[in-house]
Amino acid sequence: xxxxxxxxxxxxxxxxxxxxxxxxxxxxxxxxxxxxxxxxxxxxxxxxxxxxxxxxxxxxxxxxxxxxxxxxxxxxxxxxxxxxxxxxxxxxxxxxxxxxxxxxxxxxxxxxxxxxxxxxxxxxxxxxxxxxxxxxxxxxxxxxxxxxxxxxxxxxxxxxxxxxxxxxxxxxxxxxxxxxxxxxxxxxxxxxxxxxxxxxxxxxxxxxxxxxxxxxxxxxxxxxxxxxxxxxxxxxxxxxxxxxxxxxxxxxxxxxxxxxxxxxxxxxxxxxxxxxxxxxxxxxxxxxxxxxxxxxxxxxxxxxxxxxxxxxxxxxxxxxxxxxxxxxxxxxxxxxxxxxxxxxxxxxxxxxxxxxxxxxxxxxxxxxxxxxxxxxxxxxxxxxxxxxxxxxxxxxxxxxxxxxxxxxxxxxxxxxxxxxxxxxxxxxxxxxxxxxxxxxxxxxxxxxxxxxxxxxxxxxxxxxxxxxxxxxxxxxxxxxxxxxxxxxxxxxxxxxxxxxxxxxxxxxxxxxxxxxxxxxxxxxxxxxxx
Amino acid sequence: xxxxxxxxxxxxxxxxxxxxxxxxxxxxxxxxxxxxxxxxxxxxxxxxxxxxxxxxxxxxxxxxxxxxxxxxxxxxxxxxxxxxxxxxxxxxxxxxxxxxxxxxxxxxxxxxxxxxxxxxxxxxxxxxxxxxxxxxxxxxxxxxxxxxxxxxxxxxxxxxxxxxxxxxxxxxxxxxxxxxxxxxxxxxxxxxxxxxxxxxxxxxxxxxxxxxxxxxxxxxxxxxxxxxxxxxxxxxxxxxxxxxxxxxxxxxxxxxxxxxxxxxxxxxxxxxxxxxxxxxxxxxxxxxxxxxxxxxxxxxxxxxxxxxxxxxxxxxxxxxxxxxxxxxxxxxxxxxxxxxxxxxxxxxxxxxxxxxxxxxxxxxxxxxxxxxxxxxxxxxxxxxxxxxxxxxxxxxxxxxxxxxxxxxxxxxxxxxxxxxxxxxxxxxxxxxxxxxxxxxxxxxxxxxxxxxxxxxxxxxxxxxxxxxxxxxxxxxxxxxxxxxxxxxxxxxxxxxxxxxxxxxxxxxxxxxxxxxxxxxxxxxxxxxxx
Lengths: 530, 530
Description:
homodimer; alpha/beta; 5-stranded mixed β-sheet; 15 helices
């Protein structure tokens, strides 16, 4: 294992090259101490974006046609290397975020595991969605020619790293893993909140590309002072897709920009969600305290800086409501203020909390006051259902450790409140068996507004599996047809191609008559491994 | 069977209602005679668009939750009813287009067959992509909760009918069939080139909705004088997706408009393609005449008004080239001029042909001169590879019965020409066994630029099956990840939802533990019907 000092040069990573600053430099800030950390990190500009994209385009033909086994081995090599640097990476991420190093060791291991899962997806080859409709020369009134379909990679993908999870939603995060799994070269625009953690991950992938003998353009990491370098990526004619995790404002600016290109491209942005939690009467009466405490505890995770933070808790006034409220308050009151990711995020938190108060939300609980600048105080607010319905702003995300409790007048108002929310990543329902009739009525309302519904549990932590997603109707994401987390995240970067009347030797291997890769294929509409 | 006269009232079909004109009326034009045809057809405006969309939204919850068997039966009922009106529909479509009625009987039967194929897709239920990741309470370091995923319908879909295929790409076309199969209500904006054919189809679907006992909002057909009614659909906050088949200008206007909504929505436009055909040397020497004649013949289908028209034929000068050229010319010269779909399309054809000539394309063949106004003359032009590379306009679609032959200087120039094309619906390669090395080099270049590659045949007619697609990189379509034709067209209208930690009785039927619908499901990453 290499100590972090050796890994950090502050250079941009463009293909196999370390590229020094062309547009100034920055240093990372330790938000816990307010002090800057060495070394200096290079800023690049449009020229560096262009160089990275051109290399990615040069790499595309060879990388997108790597065999499934070769590509899977490459993903596993990245996983190995991530695990090998987990101590250095966790330590640096902790310095740059003020969050505990132990959290980042776990995050690194989960991120490595994600690459292994995508290696399995690649080996299984189901993502190719291979389909064969054999020739039927005798069909009436016209013969059918042989048609064979597989998915192919879209092209170079520009990925914008998130601020809040400096590993799992950043350089080596799920966007990168799924794009590389699909056969797409990646140009990573690193977030400036954690340049060192970004470089350690970038170097790992750069080394894996070299050791796997792949074209150097398969991966680049760039960084810029302002929006210019990211805009250059989104505008670049050779970029074929964009992903982004962050604010609604930032995400929509990139989305709309990409749609104004002469040739628009898919942009998947994951943006904002309050993950409303609805507690039905029997569950409230039976488990009010447990639900209130569990929710408030999860809302504090990562100092509330999580897309899945359960931010709004809704229950009908009645038996169990006071217990729910008191337990949530107790949890909030015992949670110490902790350093937020950046001074800017902290300032936004203060501003959003002030706006909640201006909308007559009542502060009913608060953790110990911050000891140092930049710390986020845990807070619990309460409003009535009427207030929530009258004030759209109360239904919007407050990024940080605040929770809003909504005291509803009845089940009708609960339904009305559910319908008032915009699109969400998740919604949660607490329901005991005697609540099931009410739950069944609420489910279609929630289904229409979210990508994930949880019953009698919490939507955190996020699972990464075949049946898990991280998506939802706008503004949770810009396209609810795709997910950024889970094994189907790969579908964002694939498109179908049909090969018609091909001689066997010219067909791609997955579509050859003998099925040499032993794939599941759809043959004349029936699934088979023949 | 009802005679067409009874079927045509000229009203808009909004839900179960016949709605008379609110913004004037129109009559259809018989392009073969230049005379208008009865009856008058109603124009609506934004109010009618709003009414249709609100009904669709009201219908959404019940229609999107219809059982698979019920939804499949509804699609088959539409198929039955289409077949029952095939004579009237073919006759009216012929009157409105100047194309032979026999062609439209076939088109009606294929369109009905398409509904039956989607009924099968719905019954098979694979489009739900059901996936189950069972709970693992003992997993380390954290337990896994039960996760179950299925696809759900996106919401009301606005569909813009095409001008050129008044049945298969119009009211009862593949967009409507796949959206209804997905569980999405449809608001159909009819094309004014064939209002009678549109109404007959719309009435069929309206009747099927009523007979199936579905909410009337599942289908509406509206029509307007200008762009206003279509823009109202694209802007409507309750519309969740848009499809369009037509020109690049029209498609991109709708696409960009939808992306500027406060809440952007998916828009799938199928726009423009020249479907380049490359003839490699051995195939040229062996079969030049056969290829030239076959291509030129298909280019005349539907008076060249087809998205899959093979418009550009490229071959390296050498043995067989003259035979290719002469055979294509002979075919063009024997094809009589025929009435084009509308006077506007005819005028555009004349203009585009003139522009080819201004770019020094040499006219080397022409069919008999038109006898009547509005007829499109079959034409064959020739340019050198150098000209094609220098003039982007020569690589653009000319909608009508014209073919461009490109005389290439060598295989290097053939590669260069292949790389110069924008995105295409299809590309075709003629290659004999001794051409396979050259073909293998060309395939990645074509794969990157098209949704379908055909070897040693022609890309028309379009097959509708599990392995067939009608898509391609921009500007062939606005999103090459989806197709508008073939069984996977349904994917445009679906999004994933994960149900986490659900008690069995609250789960959607396709995800219940006992697999009551006997679906193929992905259980812990393995396909099974258990």
